[in-house]
Amino acid sequence: MPNPWLALDQGTDPAERIRQVGRAHERFLSGNVAVPQIRPVVAESWRRSADALPGADSTAPIDLSDSELEEYRAAHPLSRALPLFRDLLGGLADDGDHLMAVCDAYGRLLWVEGAAPMLHGAERMNFVPGARWDEEHAGTNAPGTALAVDHSLQIFATEHFSRSVQRWTCAAAPIHDPGTGRLLGAIDVTGGDHLANPHSLALVRATALAAETYLGGQLRPPAGEGRVTALGRNEAVLTFGGTRQQLGRRHSELLVLLLAHPEGRTGEELGFDLYGDEMSPVTVRAELSRLRRMLGPELLESRPYRLRAALEADFQMVSRRLERGQVAEALEEYAGPLLPGSDAPGVTRMRRMIDGQLRAAVLASRDRSLLRAWLHAPWGSDDLHMWEEYTKLLPHGAPARPLAVNRVRELAAEYGLATRLQRPGN
Description:
Residues 120-212 form the GAF domain. This protein is of the alpha+beta class. It has helices at 14-29, 40-52, 66-75, 82-94, 116-123, 135-138, 142-149, 198-218, 249-260, 267-275, 281-295, 314-323, 327-333, 345-365, 368-375, 384-393, 400-415; strands spanning 99-104, 109-114, 153-156, 169-176, 183-191, 226-229, 237-240, 243-246, 300-301, 306-307, 311-313.
């Protein structure tokens, strides 16, 4: 059975296949959405691209530039694997016939490397660092489609949705965080028609696996540093000094409150944050004493109570991303509400603040991919206002629009509210 991720079957004439797919592409653009002779992964990508883009002559936009790009990619986890990418794929990038590219999970190109003539050709279609090459912004292409389907694949010549890209062929593979499974980005090789062979696909896949193995060792926090995970879970997880422990509910709340106040808190202040007016000094001191025995004096000191070591917390990373205007990265980091089962007043205030800031930033972005990510998450599935804004951004005639309109009407009826959206199909 043919490999669905390979562009050409053995013995296929590349020139004839380019013509065949090109004719199918023009028929598709003219309204004939039935494309049986096209690979299913490409046909589905064309449909997504047609829903998202105004036409097949769109150009990928620049999302990051200059100092903003430098700062972002220096902090990105894939920067640690860049020497490995260059070692495994540098020969291809230097031979004058290929480019090596690395993108993040949102399709933004972080690095594009190769010989000058190839780079100049890529610049004409905005295949440059900082440009956004996910399907919603650049149409069908190897790195963008690999991210969309989470699988390594090839995109051959006229299989690209955008006409300006159809003289290129590329192979790409997604890369995941080895600890969490979270999508980090993709590695891509771009060149001519000769790339449509099993070797290029195997090469990018092997490179992605090698990067994940390498990052598995690089991303572990060294001794003396630590991380706190408190988003989307009722009990925080602390990784410190090479050990990992899950804290109980009260200790989780205390740790989050201490992280929010690096200057330190008195026992009374922590008591009000935990219990409000029902605060009992004896109970608070007992909880703090147990937490100190658990963490050790090298991590928690008293008078005032504060953390001695620098701990990286996921909820604080979300806030920092938002402060920098990095809405996509903040949403990617966000695993859910802060300690959602906690009713401690101090934690509740922080939870509402983080959720409100992130939601407002996603709405203000008017980025359909971000709104869709919010709506498809457990905490956003019943968000009527977000559904309304997402629906407004969908083109009339888009396959997703009737479903979105129906969801708006369902939620509006459930909440006893009116909506001005047109009925599906209008």
